[in-house]
Amino acid sequence: MAAAVTVLAFTPTVAHIGPEIGDLPQRGTGAVIGGALTLAMCLPLAVRSRMPVVCLSVIGTAFAIGQLLSYPDTFGKAGILLALYAAGAHLVRFRRGFAAVLTAGYAVLAVTLHNLGSPQRFPDFLAFYLVLVVIWLAGTGMRRWRAEEAERRRLAAEVAAATERARIARDLHDVVTHHVTAMVVQADAAQFLLDSAPQRTGTGLRAISDTGRRALTELRTLLGILEATGESRTADRTPALGKVADLVEQARLSGQPVEWTEQGEQLPRSVDVELATYRVVQETLTNALKHATGNPTTVLVRHGKDHIEVEVITVGPAAGAPATPSGGRGLTGLRERVRMLGGDLVSGDLPDDGGFRVWAMIPGRPA
């Protein structure tokens, strides 16, 4: 901008255009002095954002000298307007004090011009001063807008970070509770088999080993998301819908009789939809292992064109004491996850013989 204003100040077509307040009779000031004043009103614009006080002080002094010497009109005098705007936009400290100094300087200039025979009267000087104030306030408005925008971005970043922390906390809860519950149930079964059927103990121990490996894999995935690498690998390592069969098989190895039914054509969905479906089945089977070990459980996954419907029913009364303590946030977190996708999750006890039902509808067009 400093270069552009300087070039325009020496361009014959527009060189005579510029703000003027003194209107004193013009007299020759010499090419050297005139050129120096013009450069002093243009070049400081190069530091208008980093040193607004210095910029405006130099340009304002050169502008005042030009008015007192009746220097001919030049586009370089527009530098005073640009410097005022920059000071309003970038000056942070001592704003009121600097504004008071500028006002006093302008008052001295107006009185001096009047004493030198300026045809301008008090209303003219006041009008010009008000124009300068409006330009200053425009810069101030820009500074406030920038500050508010920066605050909005900061708050948005905090909300996004809190949302991501909540999502990771839900995933961590799902992974830990599901796999640890399965390992506890499988360990109890292996201990029972060790006493009653030693030849089948190896199957139970292998199930515990497989469950532990799955838990480590998913925990590494969550840790990978937390790595500050700047790359998102969630889509590559998130459990896919096709692995619901692994959850069913794991529950069966833990001694839970599970019947799995899949209806409709499985279409490729977004990662969020597939992960939500996976977590619904995972959490409900975990609850079945905790609270109704050995009770028949049915898992129904129905694929629609624009949604996926999941229903998990465990029949029969609940066991006396759960295999592992419950944190009480699994279904709540699931409901939040599903609702964030625009779906719904309903859970509750079954009438008559007891049992528990979880139903979820997860919207999601094919990816």
Low-confidence stretches are: 229-237
Structural category: alpha+beta
Mean pLDDT: 80
Task: Supply the number of helical segments.
Answer: 11
Instruction: Give the oligomeric state of the chains in this entry, treating copies of one chain as homo and distinct chains as hetero.
Output: single chain
Q: In which range does the helix fraction lie?
A: 55-70%
Q: Roughly how many Å is the radius of gyration? A: 38 Å
Strand content: 5-15%
- Biggest sheet, in brief? 5 strands, mixed
User: For the terminal residues, how far apart are their CA atoms?
Assistant: 49 Å
Total strands: the figure is 5
User: Which strand order do you get reading across the main beta sheet?
Assistant: 1-2-3-5-4
Instruction: State the order of secondary-structure elements, H for helix, E for strand.
Output: HHHHHHHHHEHEEHEE
Q: So what's the overall shape?
A: rod-shaped
What does this structure look like?
The protein is an alpha+beta fold and about 375 residues long. Helix content is about 60%, strand content about 10%. It contains 11 helices and 5 strands; from the N terminus they run αααααααααβαββαββ. The protein has helices spanning about 1-10, 30-40, 50-70, 80-90, 95-115, 120-195, 200-225, 235, 245-255, 270-290, 330-340; strands spanning about 260-265, 295-305, 305-315, 345-350, 355-365. Strands 1-2-3-5-4 form a 5-stranded mixed beta sheet, covered by helices on one side. α2 runs antiparallel to α3, α3 (about 50-70) runs parallel beside α5 (about 95-115) and α6 (about 120-195) runs antiparallel to α7. The protein is rod-shaped. The model is unreliable at about 230-235 (pLDDT under 50).
